[in-house]
């Protein structure tokens, strides 16, 4: 039947009993499948990570300023990667950097959840925060 119509016999579900086959134009079928996957990729939400940099001796005013920026990023739905960059001999103050990042996470706990606790990699100590899901509205 497929040869008479100049189409292809395509096996749709080989595991079914009996196997399911269709008479279709296979190249058109493949094209539509590609189109569907392209649309799915376009609709997929892309994760954007915003970075906020601290020094181990960051002062209170600078901390508050960066805190407000992070809050804005999280409310916009972005992830925030905050880090303390140790320059030269300041690597001695690892504890100070960790305390700063934990203080940062604690200040943002109402709008963000900690995805990764402070971790030292080379000369930087990272903390990754992601926005909390918005509470469902009650009807």
How are the elements arranged and paired?
Layout: E1 8-13, E2 20-24, H1 26-43, E3 49-54, H2 60-75, E4 79-85, H3 94-107, E5 112-121, E6 124-131
Parallel strand pairs: 3-4
Antiparallel strand pairs: 1-2, 4-6, 5-6
Description:
Pfam families: IF3_C, IF3_N. It comes from Pontibacter ummariensis. This protein has three helices and six strands, in the order E-E-H-E-H-E-H-E-E. The chain is an alpha+beta fold. Strands 3-4-6-5 form a four-stranded mixed sheet, covered by helices on one side. Strands 1-2 form a two-stranded antiparallel ribbon. The chain folds into two domains: 8-41; 49-131, 2-Layer Sandwich (Translation Initiation Factor IF3), CATH 3.30.110.10.
The helix-and-strand class reads alpha+beta
**Could you list the spans in which at least 5 consecutive residues all have pLDDT below 50?**
135-139
Distance between the termini: 56 Å
User: Order of strands side by side in the largest beta sheet?
Assistant: 3-4-6-5
Discrete helix count: 3
**Briefly, what CATH class of the largest domain?**
Alpha Beta
State the helicity in percent bands: 25-40%
* Element-by-element helix/strand order: EEHEHEHEE
Estimate the strand proportion: 25-35%
Question: What is the CATH H-level superfamily of the largest domain?
Answer: Translation initiation factor 3 (IF-3), C-terminal domain
Based on Cα principal axes, name the global outline: rod-shaped
Structural domain count: 2
Please give the largest β-sheet: 4 strands, mixed
What is the strand tally? 6
């Amino acid at each position: 039947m497929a040869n008479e119509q100049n189409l292809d016999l395509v096996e749709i579900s080989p595991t079914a009993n009996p196997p399911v086959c269709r008479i279709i134009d296979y190249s058109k079928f493949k094209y539509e499948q590609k189109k569907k996957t392209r649309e799915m990729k376009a609709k997929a939400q892309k994760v954007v990570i915003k970075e906020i940099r601290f020094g181990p001796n960051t002062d209170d005013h600078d901390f508050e300023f960066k805190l407000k920026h992070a809050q804005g990023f999280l409310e916009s739905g972005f992830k925030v990667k905050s880090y303390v960059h140790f320059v030269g001999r300041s690597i001695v103050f690892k504890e100070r950097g960790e305390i700063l990042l934990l203080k940062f996470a604690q200040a943002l706990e109402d709008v963000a959840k900690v995805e990764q606790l402070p971790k030292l990699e080379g000369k930087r100590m990272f903390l990754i925060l992601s926005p909390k899901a918005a509470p469902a509205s009650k009807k």
